[in-house]
Amino acid sequence: MPTVSSNSYGKSRIRLVKVVRRGDRHDLKDLTVNVRLEGEFDSAFVEGDNRLLLPTDTLKNTVYVMARSRPFDEIEEFGLALCRYFLAEHRQLSRARIEVHQRLWNRVPVGAKLQGHAFSSAPEGRTAVITSNGERVAVVAGLENLPVLKTSGATFEGFLRDTLTTLRPDRERILSTTLSARWTYLKPEVTFGSYWQGVRQALLETFVQHESRSLHHTLFAMADVVLSSYEEIGEVTISLPSSHHQLADLSPFGLENPDEIFVATDEPYALIEATVTRD
Amino acid sequence: MPTVSSNSYGKSRIRLVKVVRRGDRHDLKDLTVNVRLEGEFDSAFVEGDNRLLLPTDTLKNTVYVMARSRPFDEIEEFGLALCRYFLAEHRQLSRARIEVHQRLWNRVPVGAKLQGHAFSSAPEGRTAVITSNGERVAVVAGLENLPVLKTSGATFEGFLRDTLTTLRPDRERILSTTLSARWTYLKPEVTFGSYWQGVRQALLETFVQHESRSLHHTLFAMADVVLSSYEEIGEVTISLPSSHHQLADLSPFGLENPDEIFVATDEPYALIEATVTRD
Amino acid sequence: MPTVSSNSYGKSRIRLVKVVRRGDRHDLKDLTVNVRLEGEFDSAFVEGDNRLLLPTDTLKNTVYVMARSRPFDEIEEFGLALCRYFLAEHRQLSRARIEVHQRLWNRVPVGAKLQGHAFSSAPEGRTAVITSNGERVAVVAGLENLPVLKTSGATFEGFLRDTLTTLRPDRERILSTTLSARWTYLKPEVTFGSYWQGVRQALLETFVQHESRSLHHTLFAMADVVLSSYEEIGEVTISLPSSHHQLADLSPFGLENPDEIFVATDEPYALIEATVTRD
Amino acid sequence: MPTVSSNSYGKSRIRLVKVVRRGDRHDLKDLTVNVRLEGEFDSAFVEGDNRLLLPTDTLKNTVYVMARSRPFDEIEEFGLALCRYFLAEHRQLSRARIEVHQRLWNRVPVGAKLQGHAFSSAPEGRTAVITSNGERVAVVAGLENLPVLKTSGATFEGFLRDTLTTLRPDRERILSTTLSARWTYLKPEVTFGSYWQGVRQALLETFVQHESRSLHHTLFAMADVVLSSYEEIGEVTISLPSSHHQLADLSPFGLENPDEIFVATDEPYALIEATVTRD
């Protein structure tokens, strides 16, 4: 008889919007929550015995009920509360994983004044992934899908060449990526909101100011600044997909093209990912 | 023998990035261009005679060559130049239509200083559609896909009820939409960049400040402000798709939910579109 | 005061699945419906007077109620019934437009036997657009997003060359497109299901068998066969987006590439669209 | 100084189409390849020293060159060849991972005859992931995104209820999922093509014929059949995302709805994943 060597189940894309009204100033949280549960469900798999199986519909209910009954300010806190709840209520579970994606809405300015009730959305998202086995809890915060581009301060030279290498060294390349990062807090007790803002700013400023010799080089510099600035963070994982801007070849038409007109492409794209850990 | 009663052909999604370097300050244009041509191509259709057919590959070449050889500041100017070029060079054409989608990149601030060479992208896009038959030229500028949301200042009451109506009047609804608009200039000669910024701000501020009785009501108010503010604009078309934020029903769990926890949905969604014209 | 020169509103992406069980054989319809209504809604736009405005939520209810209360076999019939209903019940409307997208599910074979209750989905979709102003009704059926590709039987030669043309004639090109077509019935009374199957087969077989000199040429041949075969069809509109398969340049590596290895690209792509009408 | 605890880089979405012509019968392979490499790249990360870094552009070149110079029939063979090549040529690498997604094109029938040169695409894809550290090689084949639905033969009853459970038992539910699976060969030497066809058919037939008490139950049954039928397969991982078809509530309109009219939704959705291993 085959064995279930790993399993998880849950509900994905539970969409929750929370509005807190303090007079004319409203706070808006726009979340998409994924709940994943693990446990000993052999009888469900093998025999179709559902007696230990909590319906995924109940997971959805739980997210909405918890959002109402336990006030939270930051998505990490919400994830922690959900994790604790599932593991406390349901002893058949060995592990819970709560993933929260927050769509970020900024207040709209009218004249110089930020409005209390009106928002437009930012391109990037904020994430939190909370996992627990009942004893240990991991809090991983993240930034996802922030499109950034620099037109200076990036080279790619001196690389390895083999017989199939045709790329020419580039002394001034357009570096374009959609930045995603996640980082692990050593203890689940920091002021999550201000840390997130700080890490986002550190990542972005380092991308901008670093004299890049490669995506590897930039990635490490970004991670290094985060770990240097925030000792409560134990490791950082950064993902840099990067599509190429290719100089348009206008020579058939008798035109020079001194780094001005580029063909943007989406595929293929380079992808570099690394985890950098505090020693 | 059947007749070709209408036809067009062209190249879509020509992706062009233009970088202009003025010392440390770089300007970035990130464009996707669609070229559509119309003309008398009966022999190509019926007989497979290609002698009047300019390859779509050439349309692509033309976009890159024109971007290099004719400097432009605004996408409307680029579209106008392309339209003129195709109609002047190719007498078999009866009409040219150039559609430009501009991805907007904002300079990244480091400290208080905006960087000259580093950008992050905005969620919304800017568009221009230029059409010409050789005699008359239409310039339609646009804003696309700006996500906005307000948590106050919107009601929906007093509407028509038939036997299938179950919706209840709403005195405080979340109004959420992804704003797209396009507007026609009476003459193709305005300062396109500053007009675009002004119209964008007018649309956004009106969405925020208008006391909305319906999406129809808001749409008209937005169009009205644009036409009142800019007499060079002849008409405005606005599209407001709006998905519903539904109050989560927590009564099965003994909880009240005073306009706080909502279920966001993407479908179905309401869609209202109208063109408002200067008298 | 500006004028509302055109307007429409409605509900989009109403998702409806209908299951009819005849013993062990079940029939499945998987539909996405868009309802668009037009009328004289000046008071709603200008004054926020909602008294003539039927909520879009009611449009959604109507779709589900009609699906239950009026049996239908084909999506054209369903669209016709919805059109009639809205225009009969609501005199403030000047025009109704019902758009139905049907996801196609094929019965799964087990052994040689098609199952009565199990389905896998086809890539392409079937569409119907019904419009009516109360007096005249137009029934437009369609096929959308059928990916097809041929590796022989297509050339592109003898085309127009201008100073920016670099494309070389191609005597054997890969023709790859995602076929979409729609056609108008002269009377809204045919056996829609069998016509749809026939037109689909005619379009596909013509694409395959036609000796193509260009996309224009193929498009016309496809439309011509449909109009010749079905005299109840008055016109056909076909859309052929076509992305390029570019021969990989392996010469830097000392390799020939005799029409074997291609780089597929999604953008830019050629797009040709035409409407062919019965004389 | 922080440490790079894990890293990978490579090129993603390399799009390759291979056409082999044997007289009138052409074979078509439509592949998207992702190359991921791991190794000791500390100097690249920390110091920006690129001397061991093979450009991702070269990875792309390699894919096209290998496709031309080493004939292959199945994607697993192609992945194996690429893995071997990278590890043999580049000693700085500790691990290579080649992921191939194959878009499946079926021959089009004209009359009763399958055409040799014309194809339409299937909805599902075929995948292969080959990983190697130079000593051990893992070959994981897969099926991705096959939409299937059954209207009978599935219940969900007798499940666990807690205080937040409102779901009612269902004795006849619509089971709808987009099936993805991957399986590991114990030795990388089977006839990959016929195994893939066999596993696909086993998964599909089991989904159809199994009397399902839950998604867990169905998933295990599917894995069990694969492991029983193919002793060269060591484990199977199956992923079953399942969105809900909710019976439309027509009671406000005085209508019954005996399992006929459903509202389809895409989110939230249930997701169950498990790996089943041969004992």
Structure, explained:
4 copies of one chain form a homotetramer. Chain A is α+β, with helices and mostly antiparallel strands and 279 residues long. Helices cover 24% and strands 47% of the residues of chain A. An 8-stranded antiparallel sheet of chain A has the order 1-2-3-4-5-6-7-8. In chain A, strand 3 and strand 4 form a beta hairpin. The longest helix of chain A is centred in the last third of the chain and has 18 residues. The radius of gyration of chain A is 23 Å and the shape is globular.
Write a brief caption for the model:
Chain A is an alpha+beta fold and 279 residues long. Helix content of chain A is 24%, strand content 47%.
Key terms for this structure?
homotetramer, 279 residues, alpha+beta
Q: How much is the radius of gyration of chain A in Å?
A: 23 Å
Task: Kindly report how far apart the N and C termini of chain A lie.
Answer: 45 Å
Q: Which chains share the greatest interface?
A: A-D, 78 and 78 residues
Query: Overall 3D geometry of chain A?
Result: globular
Looking across the biggest beta sheet of chain A, what order are the strands in?
1-2-3-4-5-6-7-8
Low-confidence stretches of chain A: none
Count every helix of chain A, treating DSSP H or I runs of 4 or more residues as helices.
5
Secondary-structure-derived class of chain A: alpha+beta
Percent helix of chain A, as a range, is: 10-25%
Report on the biggest sheet of chain A: 8 strands, antiparallel
Write down how many β-strands of chain A occur, each being a DSSP E stretch of 2 or more residues: 8
